[in-house]
Specification:
14 helices; Gyrase A, domain 2; binds zinc ion; 16 strands; Alkaline Phosphatase, subunit A; alpha/beta
């Protein structure tokens, strides 16, 4: 029988708007609140949760950044002459991503998405290492580094496995009673919400499914340990589609040459620009001011969101779409999805959730604060 175990469960996209009018484990997890997300996507939130630091420190904001010298996609300089249709297929892209990751020894979540093959050579890709492994966010220490340093027996899910496998793996470790800390990773709710939106009737069944597994996990902890605490949290919510904006068409009609005058990355809700001459900057920024349903992030916003990179790693200028408006086509997907995240953290649909059996003893206002909660508990384990 173990002494005490601290359990943390991550449910991707379980926003506050989805939970606030539901009874979801109200008795079991009485400490509950809405939390500000980190501007960006899960690829921004997860490094933030695992380090307690903003993007400007851990260097993960969105997937692509301008870095032609170190681009792992240099080979595409030559492949771009091959017929476009071959590479527009998701399967081909997925296989190529796997080959490049293997060739470079990448262990992170590496996917090319819909980035055009005549542009990809200009960019590097942020998530080259496994964020959850010790050293995965080097030089910023992450959760696993902390657990290893303190010599705590722990369980961290393998994000490559299905969420059912991850839940089962953690249950098995709890039955053995030899772990003292666990971080359980689940991500299927995110995919479901993208498909059916937060108003989809499938959501209730999925939320109930999580609730029954959480109860089982809590029962196992109670049976195999003298004491336990459990916390359940998410990285962001989900905003239903309000409309689409063909942003590429707006900037590509300006008679500027991609690669010579400027480069750009079009995420689903953010556009990143790097300029190579003043004329390009002026033309693009004039057009950016009239791009519908969007605004240019100012210096104060970049500071507030922790993305004021001194080297403009993720763009000299960044445009954020208004809540619900997706860029279509983007470099992440050719078609908008029924729902998306990555809008203003202030919007109610963006809010994440934090729930606990106990008072976390740390004020949790931003998803990066989860790390402080975990760190505080880990320090209690070491006598
Ligand atoms: Zn998502």
């Amino acid at each position: 029988m173990g002494e005490k175990v601290y359990l943390f469960m991550f449910i991707d996209a379980m926003g506050w708007e989805i939970l606030k009018n539901r009874d979801f484990l109200k008795q079991e997890l009485p400490y509950r609140k809405a939390v500000n997300m980190q501007l960006g996507y899960s690829c921004t939130a997860i490094p933030t949760i695992l380090t307690g630091q903003p993007p400007v420190v851990h260097k993960h904001f969105t997937f692509y950044y301008y870095d032609p010298q170190n681009s792992p996609f240099k080979i595409f300089k030559y492949l771009k002459y091959l017929p476009k249709q071959i590479f527009s297929r998701w399967r081909v892209r997925h296989l190529l991503s796997k080959m490049i990751a293997k060739h470079n020894g990448y262990t992170g979540y590496f996917e090319m998405y819909a980035m055009p093959f005549d542009r990809i050579q200009y960019f590097n890709y942020a998530e080259r290492t496994d964020l959850f492994e010790p050293g995965g966010l080097y030089p910023t220490p992450n959760l696993a580094d902390l657990l290893v340093e303190k010599n705590i027996p722990y369980h961290i899910s393998n994000w490559r496995h299905s969420e059912s496998e991850n839940i089962e793996a953690m249950k098995q470790d709890l039955k053995r009673g030899d772990i003292e800390f666990a971080f359980l990773y689940t991500a299927d709710l995110d995919a479901l919400l993208h498909r059916v939106t937060k108003d989809g009737k499938e959501i209730t069944a999925k939320i109930n499914w999580y609730a029954s597994h959480i109860k089982e996990i809590m029962n196992l902890a109670a049976e195999n340990y003298e004491d336990y605490e459990m916390y359940v949290f998410s990285d962001h919510g989900m905003t239903s589609l309000a409309g689409t904006v063909d942003a590429k068409q707006h900037f590509e009609k300006l008679n500027l040459k991609f690669g010579n005058d400027y480069v750009a990355v079009y995420d689903s809700t953010l556009i990143h620009f790097w300029f190579f001459n003043n004329q390009a900057r002026r033309k693009i920024m004039l057009e950016a001011q009239v791009l519908p349903h969007s605004h240019i992030l100012n210096r104060q916003e970049k500071q507030k969101y922790g993305i004021d990179f001194s080297d403009d790693m993720y763009g000299e200028e960044i445009i954020l779409m208004d809540p619900g408006y997706q860029i279509e086509p983007s470099d992440m997907g050719l078609k908008a999805l029924p729902a998306m995240h990555g809008f203003s953290p202030e919007h109610h649909d963006s809010k994440a959730s934090f729930l606990g059996t106990n008072d976390p003893e740390i004020s949790v206002n931003w998803v990066g604060d989860y790390f402080q909660v975990m760190k505080n508990k880990i320090e209690k384990l070491k006598y």
